[in-house]
Write a structure and sequence with these properties.
The protein has 212 residues and is of the alpha/beta class. It contains three helices and eleven strands, in the order ββββαββαβαββββ.
């Protein structure tokens, strides 16, 4: 992993207010994870979301995804944890109740991903019931295309390159992303993070599939 700029957050310590996200993302996220009972904005980057979900459920946590029917879960549970997918609750189409569904899930899960197809900004009045439910539980709420006033953390990811593909042949064994994290109390941190077999130490094993 090669740092691109900014500062890497301080060394990870045990923190009840943080949902730990292991792997390469832990070196970019403040205290190695996502803030619980708070909102994190994440760019519409499917592979990063799948990595976050996978790390959480493989550590025994539970996750929910609202409003993302196209998201592929193929990379979750490929490390031998056959029960990992059973700890994921998917609500592909919640209709007009997506905020309510996300709020209900946030009261009982560790990670909830809420996504809309088009960018959508919540007013403070509309965000208030959702934020109140988040504070009742232990979940970290990740919003994709949904803008909530004063998020605790903002994470963006941009595809940099693929590993494992040669001239006219080969298969993807890893994906590099340029990831940047901004949060209150820390200076912005950025790094190039490798997801997949290459990022797992060079042992070729399928962890993620490319989603376009």
């Amino acid at each position: 992993m090669a740092a691109l700029g900014g500062e890497v957050p301080q060394q990870v310590v045990e923190d009840a207010e943080t949902l730990t996200v292991a792997g390469g993302l832990s070196l970019v996220l403040p205290n190695g994870g996502l803030p619980r009972r708070a909102v994190t904005h994440v760019s519409d980057t499917p592979a990063l979301i799948v990595e976050m979900i996978g790390q959480v459920v493989q550590a025994g946590g539970r996750a929910g995804v609202v409003g993302w029917p196209e998201l592929s879960y193929a990379g979750i549970g490929t490390d031998g944890d056959t029960d990992a997918l059973e700890r994921v609750v998917a609500v592909p189409d919640a209709g007009l109740d997506d905020l309510s569904v996300a709020g209900v899930l946030a009261e009982g899960l560790d990670l909830v991903v809420l996504r809309t197809r088009s960018p959508f900004q919540l007013t403070p009045v509309r965000a208030r019931p959702l934020l109140a439910r988040i504070r009742k539980g232990q979940a970290a709420l990740v919003c994709v295309n949904v803008q909530v006033p004063s998020p605790a953390l903002t994470v963006t990811g941009q595809l940099a390159q693929f590993h494992g593909i040669g001239r006219g042949a080969g298969r993807i064994t890893g994906i590099d992303f340029d990831v940047r994290a901004e949060t209150k109390g820390y200076r912005p941190a950025s790094a190039r993070v490798t997801l997949g077999a290459v990022g797992a130490g060079g042992v070729e094993k399928r962890r993620l599939r490319a989603v376009t």
